[in-house]
Amino acid sequence: MNREPIKLVVVSAGLSTPSSSRLLGDRLAEAVRQSAADGGRPVEVRVVELRDLAVDVAHNLVAGFAGRTLAEAIEAVAQADGLIAVTPVFSASYSGLFKSFFDVFDNDALTGTPVLIAATGGTARHSLALEHALRPLFTYLRAVVVPTAVYAASEDWGGSGDPLIDTLPTRIARAAGELAGLLLARPPAPRAAAGAVVQFEQQLAALRPE
Amino acid sequence: MGDVTTDPTTGRTPSEHERIKAITAIALKTEEVGLDVFATGEHHNPPFVPSSPTTMLGWIAARTENLILSTSTTLITTNDPVKIAEDFAMLQHLADGRVDVMMGRGNTGPVYPWFGQDIRQGIPLAVENYALLHRLWREDVVDWEGRFRTALQGFTSTPRPLDGVPPFVWHGSIRSPEIAEQAAYYGDGFFHNNIFWPSDHTKQMVDLYRTRFAHYGHGTPEQAIVGLGGQVFMRKNSQDAVREFRPYFDNAPVYGHGPSLEDFTEQTPLTVGSPQQVIEKTLSFREYAGDYQRQLFLMDHAGLPLKTVLEQIDMLGEQVVPVLREEFAKGRPAGAPDAPTHASLVARRDAEAAGGAGKQTESVK
Q1: Which of A21, A178, B210, B246 has the greatest number of beta carbons closer than 10 A?
Q2: Which of residues 129-188 of A touch B (CB under 8 A)?
Q3: Do A59 and B131 touch (CB under 8 A)?
Q4: Rg, C-alpha atoms of chain A
Q5: What residues in A contact B124, CB-CB < 8 Å?
Q6: Within chain B, which residues score under 50 in pLDDT?
Q7: Structure confidence at residue A208 (pLDDT)
Q8: Do B208 and A204 touch (CB under 8 A)?
Q9: Cβ of A59 under 8 Å from any chain B Cβ?
Q10: Looking at the DSSP assignment, which residues form a beta bridge with residue A10?
Q11: Residue B162: closest CA among B338, B343, B339, B361
Q12: What CATH homologous superfamily does B16-356 map to?
């Protein structure tokens, strides 16, 4: 049985310190860790706080290459077995920083990576930003997005609210279970080795007229 | 680079005519101070002026004796390979062989549709067009059919290359392993345009090219022909260099308004400082690229006045390059080849013809 630790990366685009996006990311990571531990696999969690990388991300957009700190964070996300991506909802969508961070990835860097998407906001009215903004983004990147997306409005951090509606802890547990299930079941996504070669004869042959 | 850019310190914008004349003056200065190569880019959109490289290089060829004329780069994707074969063979005759050419794909999106191509086909265009160009320079009569260009029956590209030996070709790329592979397959040179990239990435691409060069039987990895970019601004006192260059850096068309000059200097080959600093940084390239054959420097861009660029080239020729030549020669293994020239390629061809066998025959595919 595979006892290798699962590499789980949390990307949090929260801007305040501490931020509710980070808080949500930590809760989700802990729930995934427990769920995977129940399945017999340890989990190594790494948190990438985009606030610390905001200027580096902007420099990458302008200069076309990632500085060392950002390159290291991108590499950690690209090599992760699973990803938890959390953004605050700004103006009805993911924050610009969240999008810009994923904009500087190669468009095949997350192919096949299981992703749990989550968002925070002042009101529950923006919860569908997860479905109309985050889910298509990661689908475009050919990541595997788990069915339950977790939205935490300010009120979710307090009382249980309507007893007929799932509480935040319930949704966290369900989403974490889905991600852990994928991580336990899936072999690691095949990734092109650095410096992989496309044989030149194949490149030429592909161009021969029929 | 051939950009028409407003000088941020004076607000003055040169005309296209002034820029073109300045570029040719810079080329003549390059020969005057004893540098080896002058290379021009190719662009088809403002603010750039050099759309017609062989016209410009032909003019420079007529006024120089020793300078090798090259490109950085020639668009193998959107130019007709037949026209590249003709233009550069003509230039090669006019310049008595002082010509090589660097192939590049170009990354300006609209140029592809303007020339009837599709940027998503960038790599296949580079592969197919060069395969045709390679044959046009080596076979007197070519029958050819491909995906991107109308077919040829019984076509002869004229003039034939000087002495029957085509110009040496470099393949330039920043991040496409397919191009390193292409260069290796043909035994051509590989130029990594590293000026905006950290050194570990450059090392990866160059290592790949060297390994594949050996795989295809052209020699050892150390015998592969590697070129690198560089970018410098010098003054005797490094503080003066930083002070003078900063406004040009901060407003440069390509990377301005981004990372600080200090960050850029730390992470890329850019050196802004004394000639001694330029020497030290350039010598360090060998640590990750191995012994290499060509070092190009980006000297003329971002609105720098002609007078300043000419001063920079004077310093490069008088204070930097003589030391680089001497230092690079030290500890250079006997197997590491010199950069190919027309004379060396003719001599190699003749030696192969006389010797018959020999490992190089394997490389003639």
Answers
A1: A21
A2: none
A3: no
A4: 18
A5: 203, 206-207
A6: 358-365
A7: 77
A8: no
A9: yes
A10: A47, A84
A11: B343
A12: Luciferase-like domain (3.20.20.30)
Q: What token pair was written down for A186? A: 């899936």
Q: Find all residues with CB under 8 Å of A100, minimum gap 6, and list them.
A: A57, A58, A61
3-state helix, strand, coil in chain A (%, to 5): 45, 20, 35
Are A86 and A120 within 8 A, CB to CB?
Answer: yes
Structure confidence by residue, pLDDT tens digits, B174-198: 889 999 999 999 999 999 988 877 7
In-domain check, residue A1: no
Beta-bridged to residue A93, according to DSSP, are A90
User: How many domains would you assign to chain A?
Assistant: 1
Alpha-carbon span B96 to B161, nearest angstrom: 11
Cα B223 to Cα B214: distance, rounded to the nearest angstrom: 8
Confidence tier at A161 by pLDDT (50, 70, 90)? low
Beta carbons within 8 Å of B249's beta carbon, 6+ residues apart = B255, B256, B261, B264, B272, B302
For B206-255, the pLDDT digits (tens) are: 999 999 999 999 999 999 999 999 999 999 999 999 999 999 999 988 78
In a domain, A136, yes or no: yes
Out of B145, B181, B204, the one facing A200 most closely (by C-beta) is B181
Name residue B74's beta-bridge partners. Answer: B103
Give A-chain residues touching B121 at CB under 8 angstroms: none
- Tens of pLDDT, residue by residue over A67-86, are 889 999 999 999 999 999 99
Which domain CATH number covers A200?
Answer: 3.40.50.360
pLDDT at A84: 98
Output b/e per residue, B328-358; b: 16+ Cβ within 10 A. beeeeeeebeebbebeebeeeeeebeeeeee
pLDDT at A196: 63
ipTM value of the model?
A: 0.76
